[in-house]
Amino acid sequence: MVVSGPVVIMVVGCDPAVAEQLAQDVHAVLGDRVETKVVDDVDEAVSAGRQITSGGGVVPLVFLDADAGDERGAAGAVALHHDPTLGSTRVVLMTRTVSLRGVDDALTIGAVHGMITRPWTIQGLRPLLAAHLATHLVEHDPDRLDVFVDLIDHDARQEARRRADRQRSRHGAEPDQVHPLLDHTVRPAELEARLVELIDQALGHPPRIRVAPGTVLIDEGDDVGGIYVLLDGVVRLSSSTPTGERILHERSTGPIIGVLSLASHQHAMLRCQAVTDVRAIPITLDQLSRALAAEPELSGVLLRVLLTSLARRLRRSDELQVELDQSLAALSEARAQLVATARFTAVGEMAAGMAHELNNPAAALRRGIEHLVDDVLTLVDDGSVTEIVRHQMSAPAIPTAEHRARRRELTAVLGDRELADRVLAIGVTDPDEARELVRRSSGTGPASLERLEASARLGRTLRSVTGAAEGIVELVASLRAYLRGDDAEGPLVPDVDVAGGVDDALRLVSHRLDEVTVERRYSPAPTITARPGALQQVWTNLITNAVDAMEDHGTLEVLVGPGRHGGVRVEVIDHGPGIAPGLLPRIFEPRFTTKGGTVRFGMGLGLSISRRIVDQHGGSIDVDSRPGHTSFVVELPPEPPQITGRPDDPTGVPRE
């Protein structure tokens, strides 16, 4: 029979402004289908409720103003619950906080059915009103459901009616053919729905609560006096650590909260907090015991749901362990790289100091040799001697085979092999000039020839000393250029001669090349815009890696020539054992090395840094390896993109 009286929603104990706002929002959602009545306290609410029901009306919902931690709010809800007139009315607490503390007893007896935090929104209020109206009306006045068709859809109304019919006509659960624990044909969602049905049957549709995001259902360390069965929404399980909160489960939580602590008689091991709007059934230990006794099927379904949830949590724990192991490995790798980079920086600083200290004396040595040559030639003041000295200072060394051939030719002319050697040492190779030299020197005796030989030796000595000084100066210049590679914030340099940079790198590692044959094959190549010091790090790393692969002996090939799109191509080839195919994808990883487990030049960062530098210049670096032949090819464009970051900084990437 349809009741013709009004549907009234009461607001109890609110500030007048809050009550007025709530009344307006309820009217905005429900319109004239309900009336809103504001009263000052619970006693007035009870009195008003009796008047409404005596006139044929119904009070499906009461909003009670009270902070969650305020026991007066919970006491008011209990008083309404025990009133014969309003005992079936659903009570929603209005709070400023998101905690369930202080309302445990009210939840246990079903006096509180939900919570809403201030300030609320109409979007959040609408589903709350729909849920509580549907729950109340299906149990106590199902004929009014059709009045709220825009809030409660057809499927929900039909399901509500079926649930009510089952509840009224329940005669006990029918025995299953297969125990739920063993029935793997039932999907988890169906099993969870069956769990809720059995709980409703056993406990007479216990009250549901609605909580807002952030609400703490169970706090870590709390006494657990019951469980929560989640109907809608997501909750998070977390624990406190010295470094902050650690989230353990969220999507993997499952629908049952608190049963492990309850079963083990322990305080709550984890904190349970709502992530979204949550609807749940709070069930006390006493209620759970009664339900298990009343519904034999419930124990099997509960166990199956619990095991499924625990399996989901266990899988998530395994995933977390894997993620932790990966994070620790990455952290260890990053730490090792930072340590190696710090060492590399320290070496660079020492090398910069050495280069600075060597630069001035090396320059002074070169200038001193220039003055020494001038002074010696001035003191000698002999045209023939001066000519020999100058010739020997600039003449290249004669290859051994050519020296033998010329000695044989002069011996045939002079008739004396020793004399031929002495003439060659002076720098005379033409037979006619040799005869003339011997003729002119014979007039003054052997001393004249010895004087000319001494002049030649002086010239060769000055050439060697000058070359050594030039070598020191060039080495210092190469070292300074190499160290400039650490300055990744400096300006780009136009017209960089890549072949010259490769030569600088070869000069820097010349101490490693004593037993290595270096074959340079340079073709005319354009100059490019780049940071030459940074590129010199690349050439040095590639050359030292090649020498390492050949164990400091063999043939090293270095090719420089024109590249793609007007750029430059550099190739470094060694004839060592090669790189295993399985290792090729990893050779550019930081600190990856195949040098017998030890790290030499570059501390395991050489190829990684080289790749970053080449990438920053907009180029490419590729490797091809097989036994006896390994080739690294670097292609550099004529103009790089804008470069950011340091060569040894993993965040440094090219920016177009």
Helix and strand topology:
Blueprint lengths: L6 E6 L3 H15 L4 E5 L2 H13 L3 E8 L5 H12 L7 E6 L8 H5 L5 E4 L4 H19 L13 H16 L18 H16 L5 E3 L4 E3 L7 E7 L2 E7 L2 E6 L6 E2 L1 H6 L6 E4 L3 E7 H10 L1 H85 L2 H12 L5 H15 L2 H10 L4 H12 L3 H38 L9 E4 L1 H11 L7 E7 L5 E3 L1 H18 L4 E9 L5 E7 L31 H11 L3 E7 L2 E8 L5 E2 L10 E2 L1
Parallel strand pairs: 1-2, 1-3, 3-4, 4-5, 15-17
Antiparallel strand pairs: 6-13, 7-12, 8-11, 8-13, 9-10, 9-12, 14-16, 17-18, 18-20, 19-20, 21-22
Q: TL;DR of this structure?
A:
By secondary structure, the protein is an alpha+beta fold.
CATH architecture annotation name of the domain at 1-169 = 3-Layer(aba) Sandwich
Residues in β-strands, percent: 15-25%
Helical residues, percent: 40-55%
- Secondary-structure class: alpha+beta
CATH topology of the domain at 1-169: Rossmann fold
Give an account of the 3D structure.
With 656 residues, the chain is of the alpha+beta class. Among the domains are: 1-169, Rossmann fold (3-Layer(aba) Sandwich); 382-478, no CATH class; 487-655, Heat Shock Protein 90, CATH 3.30.565.10. It contains 18 helices and 22 strands. The strands form 6 sheets. Strands 2-1-3-4-5 form a 5-stranded parallel beta sheet, sandwiched between helices. A hairpin with a 2-residue loop joins strand 19 and strand 20 (629-636). Helix 13 packs across helix 15. It is rod-shaped. The model is unreliable at 170-177, 596-604 and 643-656 (pLDDT under 50).
